[in-house]
Amino acid sequence: MRKSIRRPLQNLVLYVEAAYDRSFGPNWNPLRQLGSLTFFMYWVVIVTGIYVYIFFETSAAGAYQSVEYLTYQQWYVGGVMRSLHRYASDAMVVMVVMHLSREFIFDRYRDVRWFTWFLGVPLLWFLFFSGISGYWLVWDQLAQYIAIASMEWIDWLGIFGEPIANNFLTRGSLSDRFFSLLIFMHIFSPLIMLFIMWFHVMRVSRPKINPPRGLAACTLLMLVVLSLVKPALSHAPADLGTVPAVLKLDWFFMLLYPVYENWGGGVLWGLAAGLTLLFAAMPWLPPMRLPKPAVVNLEECNGCARCYDDCPFNAVIMQPRTDGRPFEREAVVNEKLCTACGICVGSCPISTPFRSIDELTTAIDLVDFPLKEVRVLTNKAVEELKNEPADGRPRIIVFGCDHGADIRLIEQPGVAGFSLPCIAMLPPSFIDYALSFSRGGIDGVLVASCRQCDCFNRLGDRWLHDRLDGTRDPYLRKRVPRQRVHVSWVSKTDGPMLEEELECFRASLETLADEEGKINSVLPGAAPGGVG
Amino acid sequence: MNSFFTVEIAGFPIKYALPFLIAGSVFLFVLYSFGLRELFKIPGEVKERRRREEDEIKRLAGKRRRGQEKPVSGLKRSMGNPLRRWIAQGFLFLLFGVFIGSLSDTLVYDRIGPDEALVKLSMTLPGKHKEKCRPRTIEENAGLPPQLRPPMHCPRERWPVLVELKLDGRRIFRETADPIGLSGDGQSSFYRTFKVPAGRHRMFLGIRDRGDGEGFNYVLEKDVDLVPVQVMVFTYNTINHTIYIK
């Protein structure tokens, strides 16, 4: 049921993201920077809010006039700041909604990620309250409407002896003290939000809280242009003796108010409470069943801390040695945080298939899909390729990712491979190992990763890139001919692209073989494949 | 002192900034004192990790410069020529801007018709006590120490309050509200709003704050002229016990 809902949504998002990839590139793609852009919008709101507050008068009589002064007399700075304050808040709502939708669609909120998701729920309320309290401060007809509607909505609970909506009953019934209280709430609500946002990201390793500078600058520029083209304006001043009849609502924050007016406070409370509970409980509806967590083999571990560095969920910790071996530290897996992605296995320098032991072991390994199984599958694929006819075309071994394109889509003579839980589980030495058979007929290695910056396990694509690029340990050895290794960044919807890239790769290998043939004819005895 | 508070910097009165600066400084100081500084300390192991990473990157970058290692060749997602990409980016940013701008305040929400007014009924009043005070009997006071023997027994419970509102002889509201409080001794509250056509109307409001008998203790019947989008409030003054219109 869940998959049947999610799969079409995932495909839709992946197609849209592919379009954004073509325009922005993977690193700048705003759909993959929603969390960090939310942080950025938050800072824009804070900075512009401080400026607006400097000129704001916290009184019923002066609030409207001070905002009008900013909008008209000081439109070039104050007006822009006010508009930016509003539009950045709106953009924040959009990004938050898209962010949580995306996490839901790709199932990135259950099990070890419950904490992050769960803390996002109160953030929604604080965001709503921060926005609404800001609109009150302008004290125009829109503020009058939402103030009264909010009070009536709270009064529905019947927790106050006298309806608090009575504070807005008639002209002159509103005091300046109320504005002081409101500004206090409008300042402290975002501060509390910031603390929760900090907790929201602290459990993962290397959280992305800053978008790429260029993307941030362009987003800010877009908001500045919008502020100049369509500055935020107030309604007529509030007048408690009349009804605000025609309103231009900010639908990002005020969508619930028409619901309240049409269906009443009870329905809205039911809706709000029901959705809050549902969102809070979603990580356990139903709980995710993960494979068994990684285990550390102390006999092999030398405490190098590479697994600790690479784990995207801070599930590996380093502690003083307990087995008396002459190393300072040892790795320990926190089972509650481990997703069994296998990235730690790929980071371990001992995870090499060249070891001449029958039962391949490593210092940190998965229980359900150990490294020895990876070597067995690699050997099997190599044997398969060596024994089956490839119609004279290059033979290629493919390492795929469970969260990327399905490599079964490119099954054909001369191509064999298997998938891993995360592409970063693949130690680069396995590429070297597969190509070492090249004398026996393996011509190339195709690594089919998920799209860049879209790793289900957060950092897998990045580590793969850096390891193969030679900027992160364990890196691909220099003896491996780079022309025989190709990385495809492909998602589940990129089957045709993977097929196309495979074809291109095979063609390039054929060209390479022709060139090597020419060299061999001139220099007899040169090794084919270039491995040495 | 007064002159200091009237100082302006570039047209901005300094007095407005002072509360913010003082409160902000105090807030930050308190946070800092209560351990915020710990949050900003980078743990030793993180420092060590960063240092190792930086060294490694420098070492490998040096190797690459010397041509010892080359990056893996890999096709990236096709992104077209730069000009087309910039145009596409601009278009997508424009789309986002239009989306934000249009939903921010362009769509109009009509709450009330141009020929309608709003009548609010807002009152909080206590019902009469259900029982009157009576002298306590000797038997009732017998078990109590002499200084704790009250002369009168006054039950606190109050009657629910009934309110009825009629517009041109047609009843549009009739409701009974129980008193709040665990002992049922608090006030009864009413808060309702009604959209009514603008124009001249005969309004009737009746209140009964006692349980016995029929009819209303307090009544207001009046012709009112309502102009479009006007708010008219029926309320009750608990001091002089009268209904009045604001």
Please give a quick description of this structure.
Chain A has 532 residues and is α/β, with parallel strands linked by helices. Chain A has helices at residues 2-24, 34-55, 63-73, 75-105, 114-138, 141-155, 176-202, 213-229, 251-254, 256-263, 265-281, 306-310, 343-347, 371-387, 429-435, 460-469, 495-522, and strands spanning 246-248, 295-296, 316-320, 329-333, 364-365, 396-401, 415-420, 444-449, 485-489. In chain A, the strands form 3 sheets. In chain A, strands 7-6-8-9 form a 4-stranded parallel beta sheet, sandwiched between helices.
Features:
heterodimer; A: 532 residues; alpha/beta; four-stranded parallel β-sheet; two-stranded antiparallel ribbon; 17 helices; elongated; disordered C terminus; B: 246 residues; alpha+beta; four-stranded mixed β-sheet; four-stranded antiparallel β-sheet; 5 helices; 33% helix; extended
The most extensive contact between chains is:
A-B, 79 and 66 residues
Q: What oligomeric state is this?
A: heterodimer
Tell me what portion of residues of chain B adopts beta-strand conformation.
Answer: 25-35%
Low-confidence stretches of chain A: 526-532
The dominant shape of chain A is elongated
Strand content of chain A: 5-15%
Radius of gyration of chain B over alpha carbons?
A: 37 Å
Instruction: Return the average pLDDT of chain B rounded to an integer.
Output: 80
Helical residues, percent of chain A: 40-55%
Q: Between the first and last Cα atoms of chain B, what is the distance in angstroms?
A: 43 Å
Description:
The complex is a heterodimer of chains A (532) and B (246). Chain A has helices at 2-24, 34-55, 63-73, 75-105, 114-138, 141-155, 176-202, 213-229, 251-254, 256-263, 265-281, 306-310, 343-347, 371-387, 429-435, 460-469, 495-522; strands at 246-248, 295-296, 316-320, 329-333, 364-365, 396-401, 415-420, 444-449, 485-489. Chain A has 17 helices and nine strands. Chain A has a four-stranded parallel sheet, with helices on both faces. Chain A has a two-stranded antiparallel ribbon with strand order 2-5. Chain A is α/β, with parallel strands linked by helices and 532 residues long. Mean pLDDT of chain A is 90; it is low at 526-532. Chain A is 51% helix and 8% strand. By secondary structure, chain B is α+β, with helices and mostly antiparallel strands. In chain B, the strands form four sheets. A four-stranded mixed sheet of chain B has the order 9-4-12-13, with no helix packed on it. The longest helix of chain B has 27 residues, at 14-40. At the A-B interface, α1, α2, α4, α6 and α8 of A face α2, α3, α4, β3 and β4 of B.
